[in-house]
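Quick one:
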Amino acid sequence: MAFGLATKISPQISEVPPPLKLSAIVQGSTIDNVTWEKFRGKVVVLEFWNTACVPCIQAIPHLNNLAAQFSHKPVVFLCISDDNADHLKQFLARNPINTWLALDAPLKPTETAFGVVGMPHTVIVDASGRIAAITHPALLDAQHLEEILAGKPSTLPTPKTSTEAAPVVPVSNSLPATVEVSIKGPFPQPEGAYGLTRWRSSNCVFEADKAPLQNALSIFFHMSPKLIFGETNLINGLYEISASAPPGKTDEMRRQFIEAAKRCLGIDLHSTTLEVSVYSMTLCATNAPGLKAVKKRAGGGGKTGGFFLGGVPMPSLARELEGLLDRPVIDSTGLDGFWAADLKWEMAPQELSSGSGPEPAKVIKAAREQLGLDLQLVRRTMPVMEIHTTHTDKY
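Output:
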């Protein structure tokens, strides 16, 4: 489904939004304060998302920037997820979100009431308590929020309305009784949201909806995507993958997954150890200006030419650097607890105009000077996954 899509049963612009039926507040106020009555007089940016939705994750820095811009105005940013709570907390350690964050109630009643058929899905409610806009977070700019704060009609595009109601999908909370695996694809890139990849039901059910193969394998096998190596162009395709197993049958599900990849895609997945180049992160200074010990976890986010983390474990900081350096980063600092990190590096004009990543040397230099962290490229024997083509006539 394309984002910004409404159905006949979806609440429409100028209507009163459905109630917020949530199970927990992960970040923000108490659950008693997350009601439309308590929000009256404020503009609410309601974001439906999921940790395994690629466009959702891509929108996080933009939403963080908007939340920072409107932090002193009557605007509430509320993200609603249907993730497992423990998985969500692990995700936040690597990808801070600077908004209120809530979990939908069992069977996703809030998502269903809002007629969400594709993620990410943004609903803006004005100060009078009526829906002002339905959009995609990438289309939302500060000027649109200023319009709604001023009581003016939103200039965001009106969402398309489907001629049919949203499909009704049976939902079951029961655990799988047998091991089942399905792999389909590759598919062309669809319009709107795609790339949903997640574990649910206490890691008994795995789902990937038109996700890049490398991303799906990373989540399924619980390893860094930078430690998955492939000699086939299939790794760049999008796939629909499902796998489920009763509790205690994880090894059998993994075995059947590998067999399905061979049968359906003509590839062999081989787990092994390999000597690879990684960055070893060690402590080289204890008085660096950009790294401070803090007492609790806090959010943060990326910014042009840097990032800020309010309070994360040191392995999470290593993963933040891993994304910038395009290689695994191994935490060898020995530091426990939570740490705030403020890092900035110089961006060349061509980097700013092209949107390309920073030069690794600049990030390494900044980390040493500002965080007191030394990043040395070393060779280490690591668990990796190798992808080999078993035959070439399938595609």
